[in-house]
Specification:
Elements: H1 2-33, H2 39-56, H3 58-96, H4 101-111, H5 117-151, H6 164-194, H7 198-216
Length: about 260
Amino acid sequence: MAWDSSILDMVLVPLGLLVLAAYHAHLWFKLKSKPESTVIGVNHLNRQAWVINIMSDSGKNGIVAVQTLRNSIMASTLLASTAITLSSVIAALVSSTTSGGTDNTLRHFIYGETGNITSTLKYLCLLLCFLFAFVCHVQSIRYANHASFLLSIPVGDNAPGLTPEYVNEFIYMSQNFFTLGLRGYYLAFPLLLWIFGPIPMFVCSIVMVFLLRTLDKAKNFNLTFKILSKNEKDENGEKDVKSTGQDGTDLHQILSV
């Protein structure tokens, strides 16, 4: 029975991780080639339009921008605190169940000398998963905090180089790290079920791919971005800009930053 269990661990666990990796590689390709087909890409384009609208009158819209980013920072703070708390609980649990003191605990993690290497690997992978989520959410807070300062600065001679595209790079990075942090939480589900066996872990990986595909696929979105320009009006009094910024920059270019 132990031999069968080890074989299942060596086959089903890498296969489940491979399925998740293949899905995210496909998602990354779609995000680069056809961003409007993914929810992440549509959100990036909408945020670009939001930055342009906010910076068109930063004096009037500055408070709204700071409050919006503050909500994002609060969400990242909650998730980062939860991730580091869970990491501490897992580390304390493993330490309390390992005999021989701190030195033997460290050797157990590195070399697996207690005879249960698979069990050690399960907890270590789960710990690294939550630590990854923690680091990503901290980076998301960092970029969002800096963007909140930039959005509240009036565009003019006192702020050389301050453009919507420059500010959007920080918001783009902040949201990317936020998304990666959430993916770390999602990955924790199959790793957590791995504790109960390789078969639940593999089944959870397959189910997770279908759920993520439903969440990541954009449906029935109107992707015509109409951004009003105060300086340029067409014969109807408005200028329709499709997927472009005020300076004519293609919004799809932000996805390659």
